[in-house]
Amino acid sequence: MKVSGFRVAAGYAIGALAVALARPTPRSIAVGLAVATAGELVRLWASGHIEKTERLATGGPYAHTRNPLYVGSALLAVGFAVAAHSVPVIAAVILYFAAFYPAVIAEESRFLRQKFGEPYEAWAQHVPGFLPRLTPGGPRSSRFEWNRVRRNREWRTALALPVFGLVLYLRSLL
Q1: Nearest residue to 68 via CA among 46, 36, 98, 44
Q2: Which of 45, 60, 67, 75 is the most buried (most CB within 10 A)?
Q3: What's residue 145's pLDDT?
Q4: What domain range includes position 67?
Q5: Is residue 73 within 8 Å of residue 58, measured between CB atoms?
């Protein structure tokens, strides 16, 4: 199994662990959901630019980081860890990202370099791999389209956000 496939399964396991070990408070849920919502907004913005494996997305958030979907996912995970209000959950999230994301980002970079060649190289010269730059850089050819958000099925992650918030709220009542 590729690293990316195992990463998804491990993500579900971390989610279950987060619920089991959560000790949420109203404040931790509010702060955590605010951070997670910021992450989902980044993911929505990125999903509206990307046509996976068809075209190189370089506009919008892709002019700030080559991996805005992962930046958004990281913010989502940090938000949920904060909402869970549990040191073991925070540690699990950190270990998860340290274990999977460098390998997944490297794997995708190799694929994109091979698939798109010089356009990828020109973009990668100006746009960092993960931590976003403040001002846009590199070529910016993609434009946001809601239809891409739908095709990329980002609605699943957007729907999971309030569901997970509700689960943590119900957990706080126990």
Answers
A1: 46
A2: 67
A3: 95
A4: 3-172
A5: no
Number of domains in the chain: 1
Question: Which candidate, 154, 158, 156, 166, places its Cα nearest to that of 48?
Answer: 154
| Spans of the chain below 50 pLDDT | 1
CB 90 within 8 Å of CB 97:
no
Vertex 64 angle, CA 60 and 70, to 5°? 90
For the chain, the straight-line distance linking the first and the last C-alpha, in angstroms and rounded, comes to 38
Residue with tokens 């919008």: 60
Q: How deeply is 77 buried, as exposed, middle or buried, from its count of CB atoms within 10 A (0-12, 13-18, 19+)?
A: buried
- Looking at residue 154, which CATH number applies to its domain? 1.20.120
Where helices occur in the chain by DSSP H, the ranges are: 3-21, 26-47, 68-84, 87-116, 118-126, 146-151, 155-172
Using CA atoms, how far residue 38 sits from 2, 34, 79, 109, 126, in Å, is 29, 6, 9, 25, 24
- In sequence order, what are the residues at sequence separation of 6 or more whose Cβ sits closer than 8 angstroms to the Cβ of residue 169? 24, 29
Query: Which residue has tokens 């990307």?
Result: 50
Q: What is the DSSP string of 33-78?
A: HHHHHHHHHHHHHHHTT--TTTS---SGGGGT-S-HHHHHHHHHHH
Q: Does the pTM exceed 0.70?
A: yes
